[in-house]
Amino acid sequence: MNPIKIKEGVYWVGEIDWDLRNFHGYSTQRGSTYNAYLILDEKITLIDTVRPYLYDRMIQRLSSLVDPSQIHYIISNHVEMDHSGSLPLLMETAKNATIITSPNGQKGLIAHYRKKDWNFKVVKSGEIVNLGNKNIKFFLTPMVHWPDNMMSYLEEDNVLFANDAFGQHIASFERFDDEYPLGIVMEEAKKYYANIVLPYSSLVQKSLDLVSPLPIDMIAPAHGIIWRSQVKTIVGEYRKWAANQAEAKALVIFDTMWKSTEKIASIIQEAFEFLGIPTKMLNLRYNHISDIMNDVLTARFICVGTPTLNSNMLPTVSGFLTYLKGLSPKNRIGLAFGSYGWGGQGVRHVEGALRECGFNVMESISVQFIPDEIQLQEIFNKLKLEISSLLEISNLIGST
Ligand code: FEO
Asked: What is the pTM (predicted TM-score) of this model?
């Protein structure tokens, strides 16, 4: 449990959650970390904490560098309990510490922990606090991920402590982006954006504008790997994701009862592929909705299929659509499809949900019982024309 030096006098003292497999509904197959950082200066400063069940390990790690009772400032960049959860325990030891946080951070911390006797220093955007030899500047970044979020920038070392922004759920011994397979780091950063940050994309753009003029050598997020070799790459990807720049790719997301809806899914895939559009089949029984969101982040066409069950769609499909609507991707083209025995309400509900997402919705495909070869060929021909015309209109091929 050694601290890791990230700059002279600045250490990673967080904890690794090797066993985490679910983070409020988001599947975290690679676990996660809660990154806390210690700055050894005249005023010893800790940035964020860890989940309470990892507090003892964090304190052991930190105590090899400094007596925790001597901590002068605790910067709370974000109230959510994966970062503030150990504050009540820590404040029993660091009794004289002052918590530096945003105005919403103070309100949130008091509401969570009911400790009115804690010392707070509430900061504004652009405010600088001197730690002795180093200065830390604060940027309020509301809704990246909660209203209280802020980022802290260590001026002398050009380090941006970005909290949830630029994070990834990865548990690893390695701490830096040049020590771990970059493809995995980027994939997990994308999944994190798609599942946590996406609904707040317009505010992400504002936050990026706020910190982009800074010289940044290192982005130290609150989860996962620290960016030091790929700072420009991850900032560029955030700009792209925040702009909802989807590509000419299609997702065929479905569940099926007697494989009739699956047959329609396959012919939809064939139509897209015929037109040269990369297409992915995502059966909701075998794909977690948070993994599907990773694909949604960059795909223009979102096709969703269900049979009709009890006058409705299958629960797997409605669960996905509820999740999708909450995450609010923009500029997408939707298609509802499925088979039915009688009634056929399932596809109509899917179409309604795609409209509620704000998607431009294509004409739905609904087939009674089992689609035969003639019906499938008709679907193929009709889709081919419709997709071609959409591509022509928006000139999607080769553009984002
Ligand atoms: Fe990592 Fe919004 O908490």
From this structure: 0.96
